[in-house]
Automatic annotation (TrEMBL):
N-acyltransferase required for nodulation. Acts in the production of a small, heat-stable compound (Nod) that stimulates mitosis in various plant protoplasts. Gene3D superfamilies: 3.40.630.30. This is Nodulation protein A. Its main location: cytoplasm.
């Protein structure tokens, strides 16, 4: 699921009460999946009912399933979430190990609890896992949210004019099993410098996006 952010009204002081945890997928109980599924339905629902559909029941993922999650909670429950999946993507003739970041959402009653907050927790985990790069995609309309991250912390590089080819998580009779999107690619240099990112206008996930 691509990175999204929701509008909110809560005061900045309330955001200081968010507590972050890092959870491996095998650690999550059924009740936690149910809680996360409800959180995603409420977070993605305002962007369109189609975006909330994958999270029906207790399903807390949309395409590929994460292996690590950063979860922010406050007194009202889940406040924010970002997932991580190590995978190889293909750029031109190069197979590249990345930590793909996705399933990002913020509860609608919070404002300013952006990706920079979650990445303060996730970035050390990327280092611990030893991946060369963190990798994610966003729709062009959300580029400004990532631009703030680049300007404030300098953690990421944004790349435009690229296409990303993925598989659909399910196969349908009258729908191509793959999709190609022109998106903003977000790269977080971790163990490698951004100059080592391979050149190429097409990125193949060879699987569903996170």
């Amino acid at each position: 699921m691509n990175i999204v952010a929701s509008r909110a009204t809560e005061s900045p002081s309330a955001r200081t009460q968010v507590h972050w945890s890092i959870r491996w997928e095998n650690e999550l109980r059924l009740t936690e999946h149910a809680e996360l599924a409800e959180f995603f339905r409420k977070s993605y629902g305002p962007t369109g009912a189609f975006n909330a559909q994958p999270f029906e029941g207790n399903r807390s993922w949309a395409g590929a399933r994460p292996e690590v999650r950063v979860i922010g909670r406050d007194a009202h429950g889940v406040a924010a979430h970002v997932g991580l999946l190590r995978r190889f993507i293909r750029i031109g003739e190069v197979d590249l190990l990345v930590g793909e970041l996705g399933l990002y959402a913020v509860r609608p009653d919070l404002e300013g609890l952006g990706i920079s907050h979650a990445m303060r927790v996730m970035y050390p985990k990327l280092h611990e896992l030893g991946v060369p790069f963190g990798f994610g995609t966003v729709r062009p309309a959300l580029e400004k949210h990532l631009t703030r991250l680049v300007q404030r912390q300098g953690l990421a590089t944004l790349m435009s004019g690229l296409r990303v080819r993925s598989t659909h998580p399910d196969v349908y009779p009258n729908l191509s099993p793959i999709r190609i999107e022109e998106v903003i690619v977000v790269v977080f240099p971790v163990q490698s410098a951004i100059s080592e990112w391979p050149a190429g206008a097409m990125i193949d996930r060879n699987g569903p996006e996170l």
